[in-house]
Amino acid sequence: MTAMPPNILWITDDQHHADCFSHAARPQVRTPNIDRMVKEGVHFPRSYAVASACVPSRISMLTGMYAHSHRVYNGHPDVPGELQSLPRHLAETCGYRTAITGKKHYGNWTQEPFETDTGHADKGYTRDYLKSVGGGLGERFEEEYLAHVPDFMAYTSTIPHEHSLTEWLTDTTIDKIDELGEQPFFLWANYSPPHPPYCNSYDSPHLYDPDEIDLGAIPHREPEDLRSIDQRRGAARLGVENAWRMEITGEKKYREALAHYYGLCTAVDAGIGRILEHLDKQGILDNTIVMFNSDHGDFAGEYNRLGKCTVGQFECIQRIPTVWYWKNHFGVERIESFVENIDLFPTVCDLVGAATPCQVQGESYEEVLRFSCSGPGPAPHTRECVFFDNCSVKGVRTRRYRLAYCHGVENWGELFDLQLDPRERNNVFDDPAYGHVQQSLMQQLLDWMIRTEQPVGMEPEHGNMPPSRWYREHPAASTEIEPNDNRLASGHP
Question: Which of 1.10.1370.40, 3.30.1120.10, 2.30.29.30, 3.30.450.40 would CATH assign to domain 386-490?
């Protein structure tokens, strides 16, 4: 008898700083359930989002492609229907039932990736769920956060915790697990917190005292850091978020915002604990691969700021938490290799025995996950660098250097020597002593762009194309031509 393929539960929250866990650099943040996944699973502390805004990052994870390849950069796009998504691929090739709960937030996809969903969090929660509860809670939710937009959008909500966004998402995810039944499922559970509004209910069990927030655990708060970020041209942010800094709001509001941010991180963790407990009670935890990550990070107090920056390249925005857990199948490992969030697609394919479509640009680290329970030795997966892909800014990070280059009204570049300048205070992009480094990294960026671009109207015979090319107007070619097929090199169709 053939064993049933494993279920896949992918849990994502929004804007979670990679250090805001009790197992990481901010132990004050209580996250016992994710800590358990780290202690019993495979943890990637050097995992990076390839885009620093919600929608482009989520489209990249769903397609395994960089943003300049799938061409989605804004927050409310019409997504090209020919883009293949991981859930639809698993449904078509392996018979998975697919569903998404919570924050959908991937634009208007011509071919919906999932079989079922609970609606975008903004509508499913505020307009549907809270409206069904009654008492004007939906209107109250919107009124409260709009009233606090200038001061970090941070406040204590008058909506009871049992009707909070995290509790709603956890409840709907548990209900969806039961609804999906015995057929193997791929379920993406999306928590909107700790994305703004930074609010916790007045009766939340996860509240933090603002006066007890350990500011000493937060890096990049010294005067030299604050002066350096003010000089970085990529530090400008969208709209009101430029005012989300302690120098403008004052320390009291800054502490309150951090307390609420930490509370939301803990609330998400508690929800994950409930979901894992439910899988265990249903007897399916042993056959469910659980992966937790975030779409991008948050300043979370660094440089005296909260929120995100979609232009500049900041470690706190682009490094993301990534943990894999499969009871009795994965060992316990901390993998220091670089990984990108587009690696999710091919990794899942390899874990369940599905072929990876040739347009996918991520790299599978399935061997790392399976290797983690086979004994000591070097992990087989290594990346030399990771890339960042925003609309007008492209970047690359190696072990020692971070480079970003922006095309615009005034071209500018950033280059930091992370070995000598780990706090990124001294931009050496135009320093002659680093000219050879700048040239090498710019060449890596150019090579990456050429290797991964997806030209419209091209056919295989038009050139000696890299194997990751996807011929948009010839979808059959993308499935019939294997990555190492000689036709790609010979020029024959």
Answer: 3.30.1120.10
